[in-house]
Design a protein that fits this description.
heterodimer, A: alpha/beta, five-stranded parallel beta sheet, 18 helices, globular, B: alpha/beta, seven-stranded mixed beta sheet, 10 helices, 16 strands
């Protein structure tokens, strides 16, 4: 079969055009394309892709239903393991998970599993059943802190088991990082995120926005309100800075701030929204992860000449391959093996330049990546008017610091078992709050495991 | 949605509102702030809590109209709602954790400037309720811009008023009034707490440093989320970077880099001015259509 060799190309917005708008980059497969791509799957007896998926979606099974044109069945198969296929199909690092282990990838190209998942998820949002679920209530109440991927997954599973679930969200919009972090051009908010959350609402889950657990209420006051258990999926929201001179100059932002203004507050559409965002002429984004790619591509879309500044080489970039590829297509410049040492100011206290030093790769460190070493005497300046720090995030201490008996580790992450039990009875946790910044799919998986653990805990209580 | 239950014009461009937010009211402490959005397209505006009533479930805020977002809020009337209202945010004032008997032995002076008078009020009121009389200086450009003087008089030990033009009370700045109290009238203060415009807090801080009085300033930095997520509010305190929203808003004033804080506060000023002019122009046109 000839089509086994070549992967079905996915239609995308033209790079030159999309570098100036916030519309979604990838159009996804239509029915013909999905069927052609699905037919490439060898339906392996011992599917390595399922093992490589953090939530073990029965990938060959759902793909077989796509081939047969049974999209609802395909959606039902995914739903057994994943709550958010339209989201994960778009943002999962498939190349290091399912697609990375696809047998076809050894000699040819792997099946486009992510794009097929997205196709099925979107089909379901468009055409699937929309009735409100009828579930017999079991009389027990669970509070979920945070409406990001971990919280949504935990809430949905508990609701299906008959629990009365209330999700508390600190911000004014639901979705956590799906809303404030990942940009519209990668994950549409109204068309996808809001509708995936709508699915959770239809299970009877209640949402309360503008509630900051640790301030507005506490874990203790929720227990007093009558919640039998609490799940903490509060994410990793605190931005890291480098600690170099000049970081508090005007024009230096955390990627969180820059992206929150654009995504959550809608600053990319100044005619419609009141929140301003810095529109730099020349923007340097420090970091090499997905958040750095999101920030640099957003800066480009706001009209800037935009750079990635990363201290290792391209091979070590932690971002998804697709994001790096898209960024390059859009004209993003990559300054690799370059490490900032200070940020220089103009006479008014605004950024004038990023002072950097050249790096070379030395011995591998504990992460297995070759660690960068400074090249002596190689300092130089990158002229820019805006610097965005995308160096990762750490969990917010607000909940742990206001809850007795809830332990944190050295990195500030909540201490929890594999199943999600924390050091405090009746309190469970999962996602970035436990692991530090990771992926949507891992957070979703942790939320599901915790739901199971909460169910067992409350059954035995 | 959060209903506006009371609205009063306190002075030109300064409005007081009681907003129905029972969960926030139940958890609020002096020194904390809230973040609200008045409309679905609006900015998240941080405002210091100026009073709260657990029984009525209301939180009081005082807002000065400066840009489009504060204007849109001030245009709302009783019975209308604000879109979002989240809080209380930030750490409460340190004194609420102190031993009350020790606190009674201390002489506290609050120095409030302009709209900063509003957040000083719940602190002085809390102290009064706990048997502590604190002195207060309220400063304003002119008499008509003074707010909450009667309310403050009812809870303060001594209330001093300072106006730049001498139209009421001491003729001059709050720093002049402070110097007079300490150097001429022989007043002794253990701690000064100042809330107001950054520039005023800077000079209060310089003056109290000179006078050797420990001082706390409540900063009103730029913010987006207010929960520690964005870092827009970072400020240098004692050479270290702190987030106003989670580490503050109150800091040791003598350690705060006010020049940096003022510079950072102005980051969006040009853009805000442009939007304000456009909004006012838009309003005028609506008038012309009628």
């Amino acid at each position: 079969m000839a089509n086994i060799i070549s992967r079905t190309p996915v239609r995308e917005q033209d790079p030159a055009q999309r570098a100036a708008n916030f519309e979604e980059v990838c159009y996804g497969f239509n029915v013909e394309e999905a069927q052609r791509e699905a037919s490439r799957c060898l339906n392996c007896r011992n599917p390595r892709c399922v093992q490589a998926c953090p939530v073990n979606i029965q990938i060959p099974n759902f793909i077989a239903e796509v081939v047969a044109g049974n999209y609802q069945q395909a959606a039902d198969i995914i739903a057994e393991d994943s709550l958010l296929p339209s989201i994960c199909g778009r943002v999962c690092p498939q190349e290091s998970q399912c697609e990375g282990s696809c047998i076809l990838g050894i000699k040819h190209e792997p099946v486009a599993i992510g794009k097929l998942e997205r196709f099925v998820g979107d089909w379901q949002l468009e055409n699937g059943k929309k009735e409100t679920a009828q579930i017999e209530p079991n009389g027990k109440k669970v509070a979920v802190v945070g409406s990001g991927p971990a919280g949504l997954a935990c809430a949905a599973d508990l609701a299906k088991l008959g629990y009365e679930v209330t999700v508390f969200e600190a911000l004014h919009r639901l979705g956590g990082v799906l809303s404030y972090g990942i940009p519209e051009f990668r994950l549409p908010k109204e068309r996808i995120v809001a509708r995936e959350i709508e699915k959770v609402s239809r299970l009877g889950v209640k949402f309360e926005k503008n509630i900051i657990v640790g301030r507005t209420v506490t874990i203790d006051s929720l227990t007093e309100e009558g919640f039998d258990a609490v799940f903490v999926g509060s994410g990793a929201g605190l931005p890291k800075f480098m600690g170099i001179p000049g970081e508090n100059l005007n024009g230096v932002f955390s990627a969180n701030e820059f992206l929150t203004r654009i995504n959550l507050m809608g600053a990319f559409a100044p005619e419609e929204n009141d929140t301003p965002v810095r529109r730099g002429k020349k923007v340097a984004v420090v970091g090499g992860g997905n958040v750095a790619m999101d920030a640099v591509r957003s800066a480009k879309r706001l009209g800037a000449e935009a750079y990635i500044v990363y201290r290792r080489s391209e091979a070590e970039l932690p971002a998804r391959v697709e994001e790096v590829h898209h960024a390059k297509e859009e004209g993003i410049e990559f300054a690799m093996l370059t490490n900032p040492v200070s940020i220089e100011a103009d006479e008014k206290g605004w950024v004038r330049a990023l002072r950097c030093v050249k790096m070379e790769l030395g011995e591998p460190d504990e992460s297995g990546r070759r660690s960068p070493v400074e090249v002596a005497g190689s300092e130089f300046e990158i002229e820019c008017d805006t610097v965005i720090m995308a160096l990762g995030t750490s969990p917010n201490p607000l909940i742990a610091s206001t809850t007795e008996g809830l332990e944190r580790n050295r990195r500030g992450c909540l201490v929890a078992t594999e199943e999600g039990a924390t050091t405090r009875e009746g309190v469970f946790a999962g996602g970035d709050a436990v692991t530090g910044a990771a992926t949507v799919i891992l957070a979703m998986g942790a939320g599901r495991k915790a739901a199971k653990a909460i169910h067992e805990y409350l059954n035995n209580k | 949605m959060y209903e506006i239950l009371r609205k009063e014009k306190l002075a030109e461009n300064i409005y007081l509102m009681d907003i129905h937010a029972p969960r926030v009211a139940a958890s609020a402490h002096p020194g904390q702030f809230i973040i609200l959005r008045s409309t679905p397209e609006g900015e998240r505006i941080p405002l210091t809590i100026s009073d709260y009533d657990i029984e009525r479930g209301t939180v009081q805020i005082v807002v000065q109209t400066l840009g489009v977002s504060t204007l849109k809020l001030a245009e709302k009337e009783v019975g209308e709602c604000v879109e979002d209202f989240a809080g209380p945010l930030g750490r409460p004032s340190d004194f609420i954790y102190e031993n009350i008997e020790e606190l009674k032995g201390k002489k506290l002076l609050f120095i409030a400037g302009g709209v900063g008078t509003a957040p000083v009020y719940p602190q002085v009121k809390w102290l009064k309720e706990h048997g502590v009389d604190a002195d207060v200086i309220i400063g304003a450009k002119t008499k008509s811009l003074l707010i909450l003087t009667d309310e403050m008089r009812a809870v303060a030990g001594n209330l001093y008023i300072a106006t730049d033009d001498g139209s009421e009370g001491f003729h001059g700045m709050v720093t002049g009034c402070l110097k007079k109290l300490v150097e001429e009238d022989g007043k002794k203060y253990d701690t000064v707490i100042t809330i107001g415009p950054m520039i005023m807090m800077k000079f209060v801080s310089l003056t109290t440093k000179e006078l050797g009085i420990p001082t706390i300033a409540s900063l009103n930095s730029l913010m987006v989320d207010g929960t520690g997520m964005c870092g827009a509010c970072r400020v240098s305190v004692g050479g270290k970077t702190k987030f106003t929203c989670v580490d503050g808003p109150e800091f040791d004033a003598h350690e705060v880099d006010f020049d940096e804080a003022m510079r950072r506060s102005g980051q969006y000023r040009d853009e805000e001015q442009r939007r304000l002019e456009k909004y006012k122009d838009h309003k005028c046109r609506i008038g012309l259509d009628k």
